Input
Amino acid sequence: MELLRFATAGSVDDGKSTLIGRLLYDTKSIFQDQLESVERTSQQMGNEYTNLALLTDGLRAEREQGITIDVAYRYFATPRRKFIIADTPGHIQYTRNMVTGASTADLALVLVDVRKGAVEQSRRHAFLASLLRIPHLVVCVNKMDLVDFDRDAYEKAKAEFREFAMKLDINDLTFIPVSALHGDNIVERSLNTPWYEGTSLLHHLEEVHIASDRNLVDARFPVQYVIRPQTDEHHDYRGYAGTVVGGVFKPGDEVMVLPSGFTTTIASVDTFDGPVDEAFAPMSVTIRLTDDLDVSRGDMICRPNNQPLAGQDIDAMLCWMSEASPLTPRTKLAIKHTTRSARAMVTDLRYRLDVNTLHRDESATSLGLNEIGRVSLRCTQPLFFDEYRRNRSTGSFVLIDETTNATVAAGMILGES
Amino acid sequence: MTATFSSASYELSHLGYLEAESIHVFREVAAEFERPCLLFSGGKDSIVMLRLAVRAFAPAHLPFPVMHVDTGHNFPEVIEFRDRCIAEAGARLVVASVQKSIDEGRVTEETGPRASRNRLQTTTLLDTVAEHGFDALFGGARRDEEKARAKERVYSFRDEFGQWDPKNQRPEVWSLYNGRIRGGEHIRVFPISNWTELDVWQYIQSEGVEIPGVYYAHDRPVFERDGMLLAESPFIEQLPGEHVATRRVRYRTVGDMSCTGAVESAATTIDQVIEEVSATRITERGATRADDRVSEAAMEDRKKEGYF
Output
């Protein structure tokens, strides 16, 4: 069975919690004791209805304030697929949480109120989904019950959203008219929308083709850990453990190790169960090489005729995540990229992006919490990277404040600077 | 694991995907921390954790020791099982004893029929972490278990008091984990965060891993309290009106005998257990853990103190 990870973003009024509650409830993924606990708490809080948001708002502060603060992960399954939902708050002050949820998602679910169309919040969510290169975007045009399931209202909201989405880099865009409250087109196709020719949301989630979203062309293997048993039985064993983040690796393949640039061949691709014929993303394996080379954590194994970019100067989009202080150029930070750690300095803030209007402010001199901008970065040692749009693993990095140890930024590489 | 991927289409099954993600986390910690340690209770989640750790570093031995926080209120068959498992994995065992913490006056034993050593474990755990200088502790917590855990990171930062601060968690993007800490602080690492109870059982089935007998249906003298079936044992007093009777039960979680409940069951094989888990309408902690029933935020509050 295949696994699909999807991210949702939304705030109190747009029906996101109701939608998730509906998916979980109708797929029998909410347990009786969870539901009873939510019903009890709803009554205590004086809610007139069972507040399904309480299922996901797990922290004391969230329940007290009636808001979602952090990413909550939810799990459900149907006979066809297993699903992991990264459920994130939708307000602008939680952009970093949305970025977190979106970073590992195969699909993003954006809600649009049919009466309001593509308002600022929905546009922002769609923009973040495109920035984080989530391969599939599903727009649920919600609250169809409030417009009597009127086709024209749906088409108008859809056209408006599509026009905005043209400005973004989105590969696969799907619209579904729904009523989360009443369950229309969530699990089953609704009789209230006979004019709608697509499938229900759940059916789409079960069927959307994700296997080809991975990069199976550019072979990339960042060395994570060197396995040397130092036992009598495996005296000469030296294996390079890691996760394949692109392409396919097979025994006999000619490979190059960076930064040294030496070429050799793969002797075997090992797992606990023994050697395998090939490894592809996202398998965790151990590669042995034919020649005895000096290879260590942070090195990159690739193909000699298909190498990643290498360099110390990087052009990237940054989402600033620090509450403590804004990003200002020349600040020195730690960078973590694949399995490689170094130090880095933002040498130039090229512009700050308004996540609502996509306006580029080139006069900006700093990035505050939740702000997104394009920067030039200088690292203390070369990184081996690809454009984020080609590879979400070799194209991403985090920046860490060396005094507080806080993760202060998520970065997506555009290319060499 | 065998038969988890079909190489013709380059597709991983959900268990293959989860396994790869967990192994990545184990290796990342081994590479970046000086003194990691794996928490092991003998329960199904820690059995899967140990299995994944062995897979991550094969053919080498585990590059870290294994810790059991021993409340002294164990199922005897689980202790015997623990020792065998750890010996097979070629790992070194560190036992953190709650009894020793009580004897040394570090904690005070609760008394009465509802006494439990569950909460005392936190002190014993943190003392052992300090004594050995562990900077990363692998735990088998899963996000589907409980709503505070649903919000916890894979790398969960703990300050010098072992406390978790849910409002100040490090953003965790892609699979880039920030393990930077200062002296005295540590990270709790949860490699199976994204697994569900059913995933754990399916993995045990597909790997053919042995689990303690208490997970299968057996006859046991039990009594009912707060809708749970607790085992009769020297560690727990009955309240007036609580009567012991022998029933056919099994455990969904294995912890301290004084607060872990059994469920009635006829499942004697792994296939039957999976069938039962697939059909159940009650979460495992809701059904069987008295420690989580104290309040809506019982787990969050204990985690803030340094609990698992």
About this structure: Chain A touches chain B through 76 residues (CB under 8 Å). The domain at 309-416 of chain A is CATH 2.40.30.10 (Elongation Factor Tu (Ef-tu); domain 3).
